[in-house]
Design brief:
Elements (H helix, E strand, L loop, with lengths): L2 H12 L3 H6 L4 E8 L5 E10 L4 E7 L2 E10 L2 E5 L6 E5 L5 E5 L4 E7 L1
Antiparallel strand pairs: 1-2, 1-8, 2-3, 3-4, 4-5, 5-6, 6-7, 7-8
């Protein structure tokens, strides 16, 4: 487990009510707001399909489409999307996901629509 994953897992455990957050079904459409490694902002949508064993993620941002598949460890969702580093999201009690990608140099928030 990488340092980023461990840090996110520790943060997720510190969130009040985190047990409720990771038990929920994540399936649905989300608004995406993020910052690239160079600091530029982007937005779009993401569709999550939670099968219980895995979570499929399809992003449509800045005119491009991306797809990945993830697994949960507690309130942390780790998504392999074909790049060198996965996306790590903390699942919050309000249903949003706060994440980091590009080895921690970029940020992303998924908000349920």
């Amino acid at each position: 487990m990488s340092l980023i994953s461990k840090t996110l897992l520790a943060a997720a455990c510190a969130i009040g009510g985190a047990g409720m957050a990771f038990a929920q079904d994540l399936s649905g459409t989300y608004r995406v707001d993020g910052r690239n490694p160079n600091g530029s902002a982007y937005s779009g949508t993401a569709v999550l399909e939670d099968t219980g064993d895995a979570v499929g993620v399809s992003w449509s941002v800045a005119g491009s489409n991306y797809a990945g598949r993830g697994t949960r460890t507690g309130a942390v969702l780790t998504v392999d999307w074909g790049e060198a580093h996965p996306v790590f999201y903390v699942i919050t009690t309000d249903g949003s996901l706060h994440g980091t990608w590009a080895n921690g140099t970029a940020l992303e928030k998924l908000t349920p629509q």
